[in-house]
Specification:
Length: 338
């Protein structure tokens, strides 16, 4: 008889429903979350290679002044329409059936990385938000100052987060209630008007020197009787998109990351380029494609306008008929997608 490996265990929130049959929970190997079945530990040698290698697009990037357009105003906050509003990078305001969500709020500059775009309205005017969705704890997705700001002006806020990320929230906003979930689990704090599921992503975690993959990462799916919305978080291209499609497809609206993909030798396992994001979208049998994770922060080697140009070329070829690229602050009304 094969003996169980004492270095491997599985973790999930036992109080929550697990929607994938026979799923034991997220695999943990020697105290680190696996990326599916296998550990993914980004190699420092590749980071060093990136820092020491010249960017072949350096001059093109230096001359590229693109930033996403911004539609000023905060009327979307007081509207009663179901909508999606991009606030830059991976931050979205989403309203479904009268319930309001904010994803991965990063509203200010990051350490050593300045924000290149404005918000459509001051952060203190982001009001009446019911739930905060945090896909993972990298600093360009989980920003403590932004979380404090949103919670200060939305005392009713509840955070829906991956396993173990609550350790950061307890040290950031002690009174912010939260619920942790593993992959393929359904949060049970959301009113019945919207179902919220935490789903896989191909990524990793690190904020400090000793916490590599100690906290989980993932994606979200929001579902009502009328619409299914997928927020991919940060992810490389992988088989989890097929699993998600098997459970939920076709998906009406997919919010997909399309930036921070060069150099490929460093980024490929954790980020998608536009072609890969479109391939994942088609795997999900998506209806509308909204891109994110581009233009707001300079995190990689590609010129800032390159993801936009590539998506426009793919759409012009007929391979992406559902592309929508809203300005920051421009509402995408969900009724117009149906």
């Amino acid at each position: 008889m094969q003996q169980p490996n004492k270095h491997i265990r599985h973790l999930k929130n036992d109080r929550l429903e697990t929607i994938k049959p026979d799923y034991r929970g997220n695999k943990i190997i020697k105290g680190k979350f696996a990326n599916g079945e296998e550990l993914y530990l980004p190699e420092f040698s590749k980071v060093l290679k990136w820092q020491l290698s010249p960017n072949p697009q350096r001059d093109e990037k230096k001359q590229d002044t693109y930033t996403p357009p911004v539609q000023q105003g905060c009327d979307f906050i007081t509207s009663d329409e179901d909508m999606v509003v991009w606030l830059g990078h991976a931050t979205f305001f989403i309203r479904l059936n009268g319930i309001s969500f904010i994803t991965d709020p990063v509203l200010f500059n990051l350490p050593l990385v300045k924000r290149k775009t404005q918000l459509p309205c001051p952060p203190d005017q982001l009001l009446n938000i019911d739930f905060m969705l945090l896909s993972h704890a990298h600093r360009d997705h989980l920003d403590k100052q932004s979380i404090k700001t949103v919670f200060t002006h939305n005392p009713q806020l509840i955070a829906l987060i991956p396993l173990e990320v609550g350790k950061i929230l307890r040290n950031t906003c002690r009174h912010l209630p939260y619920q942790e979930a593993g992959w393929f689990q359904k949060y049970d704090l959301v009113p019945d008007a919207v179902e919220v599921y935490f789903l896989p992503a191909s990524h990793w975690h690190r904020r400090g020197l000793t916490d590599m993959n100690k906290m989980l990462w993932g994606s979200f799916l929001l579902k009502t009787p009328e619409i299914t919305l997928y927020f991919a978080g940060d992810s490389g291209i992988d088989s989890h998109f097929e699993e998600i499609e098997d459970l939920f497809g076709p998906i009406d609206l997919c919010i997909m990351p399309v930036g921070a993909y060069k150099p490929s030798f460093l980024m490929k396992k954790s980020h998608m380029n536009p072609h890969e994001a479109v391939r994942a979208f088609n795997t999900l049998r998506g209806g509308t494609f909204i891109p994110m994770h581009y233009g707001t922060f300079d995190l990689s080697d590609e010129p800032p306008s390159e993801p936009v140009r590539m998506l426009e070329q793919i759409a012009a070829s007929g391979m992406l008929p559902g592309l929508k690229m809203p300005a920051i602050g421009e509402p995408v009304l969900l009724k117009d997608l149906q």
